[in-house]
Design goal:
This protein is an alpha+beta fold. It has six domains: 121 residues, Roll (PH-domain like); 68 residues, EF-hand (Recoverin, domain 1), CATH 1.10.238.10; 73 residues, Orthogonal Bundle (Recoverin, domain 1), CATH 1.10.238.10; 286 residues, Phosphatidylinositol (PI) phosphodiesterase (TIM Barrel); 86 residues, no CATH class; 139 residues, C2 domain (Immunoglobulin-like, Sandwich). The protein is 27% helix and 24% strand. It contains 25 helices and 34 strands. The strands form nine sheets. The chain has a seven-stranded antiparallel β-sheet. It is globular, with a radius of gyration of 29 Å. The protein starts with 7 loop residues before the first helix and ends with a helix.
Length: 845
């Protein structure tokens, strides 16, 4: 039952039942599960259960819940016999940054419905208490008596990084403690106390500067502020009245239609005061251009929850990445038992899941977040009978979602647009040769027609040294997944034994391909990269080449042209066994469409990736700049867009609000009060990349003041990202506190709050000014280093209609660890230059 369908009295009974508690079975894959007592806490902020060895951790915050699913749909339930539990008594709660599941079985179906409806109601944000004060009070109430003592308040202030004398805290405590029961604060009293310490001096100064020193803003003052600072246009009286009515808490101010400091603070901390343009929460790019004109959100080894060797494969990862805006998912298919194809990471100890279950999940979640096309990147290792089973499942489950349009791709001059392909699933895979007998149900495809990451491939790398115009050709057969042995072998090799072997030919490998599966491939046929040159441009080709970080050896301008009509996919190397991610920006700069990421691995690279796609409603498609779509463009030039206006970004870093202690702090909340500073980084073209930081504010994480201005000159704002990072200064280094990354084109002007990701209360208050800049922009240090490395190499071909798959690795390991390096040793000077070049590439990636 949807929460909207319940009346107020029904929902009150639902909340009461949840707070009273229910005995349910918690499944963890064990034989019988664990019987626990689950209940909603007093303030409706989290679910708790008992008994538990870790009582403080036996809870799930309502704010952390992503989804509540009815029935037996999680992987945990699949470990039990089909008839073991009544599906009407089962439900799963998906929560946390890594999307864990809490799988529960109630005694009665009515109890399960109560919890499902109640949780969905709470997730919708329907609450009668202030969420921020509620969360802080709940965490501070250590003994659970519903009130806060002076000792608990001191602990809370230390946790919030508030450095106040004890006497001052006692005075504020006594001021807020207004009821008959002295010595403790009720919820209402705590709200008063929290308001005292939270009043914003910076916002107060802004307010009185526009109110002629009055304590309130009238409608005229408010309009002047919004037009002058926030650059808002077309304001009406109705709009201004709506702002005051919505954000002003004081009845007297409402009566006079003015905004006091509390109302002004509420407005500035609302989404209206966020640095991110709210219009960019919706699709705002032209979606009618060919697919090759877009960057596409792409997942690598989608099914994995962790590393590439030992982690679990889970169906839920497909729902997670699709709902996160991903539009290209990987399906690694192998023969399974009982004729059922399975998905897992081949030649490793990762667990296995059914192909059918994955396709059912994709069918359910493909278009819940975005209506634009989903690409299934199928890695086919199956026998012909199981390939036929795969094709059968794809047709039966996806039905009209599967793109089976009767299009002659050889007659098409361009790929279809995301708009035309709305609601469609495209299958990327191998395709039978056109000259094969039409009646044949299967046929051979050569290794050059595969997109098989596991096959051994041989490519050549040209390494131009800094002084010698001659080239060295390294033969690089792609390594199979014997990671431990090959890594150890590579480290044992002596640098002086590196040698060169040039063997231009190898025996072709073939595999059998089912006609049924081949016929599902329309616009994304897998071919080898050499066919780009030999066959010309065909819009449905999808090429694979192992380059191992050598894509940067192409001239960047050539690589841009290579991308102007075809699709190109870049994926992490097999050497990233920890599922780490590389820097996607270098490949976006060259126009690479599909930069595949390990969505299961949080970190800076994935944060940058998310920020990129958020600027177009997180629909999974970003229109490339015009210079990348047609014309000549070289991303590593000092002036890549001669004649175009440059941009200057002026950021005034004003203050911080409720900055927490570092997550990995040794003493947790009991650690010392932080000394924060802000670092701002521009991520974009090499000429634009730069970092600046503020001074350090000692002993204040609750409301530090910086009042510092940072200025950045930017050549190509269309692809630039701005990354705000907050650090805690330490005598021996610095500790990471939080970050927020925003596309420059999505930044709002004026006074704005930069909320740190995953921290609803923590923010940096800034003033943003963006304007055109005349004259030549000075090259950044990063561009100078890039030129010094001479990453512009000979090679690359311009052709169309292909999708290249290029794995990226870090370091010299792939060069050292090659069986074919057995002939003439390299001079030691050349080796040192290769090492220097590789080390610098590692810094970039």
């Amino acid at each position: 039952m949807a929460p909207q369908s319940l009346g107020v009295s029904s929902m009150e009974r639902c909340m009461c039942t949840m707070q009273t508690g229910t005995q349910m079975t918690k499944l963890k894959g064990k034989k019988n599960g664990l019987v626990r007592f689950f209940y909603l806490d007093e303030h409706k902020s989290c679910i708790r259960w008992r008994p538990s060895k870790k009582h403080d951790r036996a809870k799930i915050s309502i704010d952390s819940i992503h989804e509540v699913c009815e029935g037996k749909k999680s992987e945990i339930f699949r470990r039990y016999a089909e008839s073991r539990f009544n599906p009407n008594c089962c439900f799963s709660i998906y929560y946390g940054d890594r999307v864990k599941s809490l799988d529960l079985v109630s005694t009665f179906a009515e109890e399960a419905r109560t919890w499902i409806s109640g949780l969905k109601y709470l997730m919708a944000g329907i609450s009668d208490e202030d969420s921020l004060a509620r969360r802080q009070r709940t965490q501070a109430d250590k003994n659970g008596d519903g009130a806060l003592s002076i000792g608990e308040v001191h602990q809370l202030l230390h946790k919030l990084n508030v450095n106040l004398p004890k006497q001052k805290v006692r005075e504020m405590f006594q001021e807020a403690d207004s009821d008959e029961i002295q010595g403790s604060l009720t919820f209402d009293e705590f709200c008063s106390f929290f308001k005292i310490i939270s009043t914003r001096r910076d916002l107060y100064l802004i307010m009185i500067s526009y109110s002629n020193q009055k304590e309130v803003l009238d409608l005229h003052d408010l309009a002047r502020f919004l037009e002058t600072e926030q650059k808002m246009r077309g304001l009406t009286r109705e709009h201004l009245v709506d702002i005051v009515s919505k954000f002003e808490p004081c009845p007297e101010n409402l009566q006079h239609m003015v905004l006091g400091i509390d109302g002004f603070t509420n407005y500035m901390r609302s989404p209206a005061g966020d640095i991110f343009n709210p219009e960019h929460n919706q699709v705002n790019h032209d979606m009618t251009q060919p697919l090759s004109n877009y960057f596409i959100a792409t997942s690598h080894n989608t099914y994995l929850t962790g590393d590439q060797l030992l982690s679990q494969s889970r169906v839920e990862m497909y729902s997670y990445v699709l709902q996160a805006g991903c539009r290209c998912v990987e399906v690694d298919c192998w023969d399974g038992q009982d004729g059922e194809p399975i998905i897992h990471h081949g030649y490793t100890l990762t667990s296995k899941i059914l192909f059918k279950d994955v396709i059912e999940t994709i069918n359910k979640y493909a278009f819940t977040k975005s209506q634009y096309p989903v690409i299934l990147s199928i890695e086919n290792h199956c026998s012909v009978p199981q390939q036929k089973k795969m094709a059968e499942y794809l047709r039966e489950i996806l039905q009209d979602k599967l793109d089976l349009s009767n299009v002659n791709v050889h007659e098409c001059k361009k790929l279809p647009s995301p708009e035309i392909l709305k609601g469609k699933v495209l299958v990327k895979g191998k395709k039978l040769p056109a000259n094969l007998d039409p009646e044949a149900e299967e046929g051979d495809v050569s290794d050059e027609d595969t997109d098989n990451e596991e096959e051994e491939e041989e490519e050549y790398i040209t390494e131009n040294n800094l002084q010698d115009e001659n080239s060295i050709m390294f033969k690089q057969p792609k390594q199979k997944r014997c990671f431990g042995r090959s890594i150890l072998r590579s480290f044992k090799r002596k640098v002086s034994s590196i040698s060169v072997s040039i063997t231009p030919f190898r025996k072709r490998k073939t595999m059998r391909l089912s006609r049924a599966l081949s016929d599902l491939v329309k616009y994304t046929k897998s071919v080898r990269v050499h066919e780009i040159e030999t066959q010309g441009s065909t819009i449905n080709q999808y090429s694979s080449v192992t380059v191992m970080n050598q894509i940067l050896l192409l001239k960047p301008g050539e690589l841009v042209r290579l991308n102007q009509r075809q699709l190109l996919r870049v994926y992490p190397s097999n050497f990233r066994v920890d599922s780490s991610n590389f820097n996607p920006q270098a490949y976006w700069n060259a126009g690479c469409h599909m930069v595949a990421m390990n969505y299961q691995t949080e970190g800076q690279m994935l944060e940058v990736y998310r920020a990129k796609f958020l600027s177009n409603g997180n629909c999974g498609y970003i229109l490339k700049p015009k210079c990348m779509i047609k014309g000549v463009f070289n991303p590593v030039q000092e002036d890549p867009l001669p004649g175009h206006k440059k941009t200057q970004l002026v950021l005034k870093i004003i203050s911080g609000q409720q900055l927490p202690k570092p997550k990995d702090s040794m003493f947790g909340d009991r650690g010392e009060i932080i000394d924060p500073f802000v670092e701002v980084e521009i991520i974009g073209l090499p000429v634009d990349c730069s970092k600046q930081q503020t001074r350090v504010v000692d002993d204040n994480g609750f409301n530090p003041m910086w009042e510092e201005t940072l200025v950045f000159n930017i050549q190509m704002p269309q692809i630039a990202l701005v990354r705000f990072q907050v650090w805690d200064h330490d005598p021996i280094g610095r500790d990471f506190i939080g970050q927020r990354t925003v596309a420059l084109t999505s930044m709002m002007p004026g006074y704005r709050h930069v909320y740190l990701d995953g921290m609803a209360e923590s923010s940096v208050f800034v003033h943003v000014s963006i304007h055109d800049l005349a004259g030549k922009v000075k090259a950044s240090r990063e561009l100078t280093e890039l030129r010094f490395m001479k990453l512009q190499r000979q090679g690359g071909a311009s052709s169309a209609g292909c999708l290249l798959q290029i794995p990226i690795t870090v370091g010299l390991l792939p060069v050292l660890n090659r069986k074919a390096l057995t002939s003439t040793p390299l001079p030691i000077s050349r080796v040192l230059k290769v090492l220097l070049w590789t080390a610098r590439v590692k810094l970039i990636t």
